[in-house]
Amino acid sequence: MIGKDYRGPEYHASTGLPVAILLLSVLGISAYLFLAGSLTSEEHAVAKVYLPAAQTQTR
């Protein structure tokens, strides 16, 4: 009987499952953030940046 030797090391590892888990996680988190952001009716705060006044040196 000719078959695979299951006692040896694995030379052809599959990366499909970890990549699928990663992509599903990213899509799930993105969908959650999008839906949570669209369901809130509160006004979003706007950030303001104040730059320091320019100073000139006089000698």
From TrEMBL:
<protein>
    <submittedName>
        <fullName>Uncharacterized protein</fullName>
    </submittedName>
</protein>
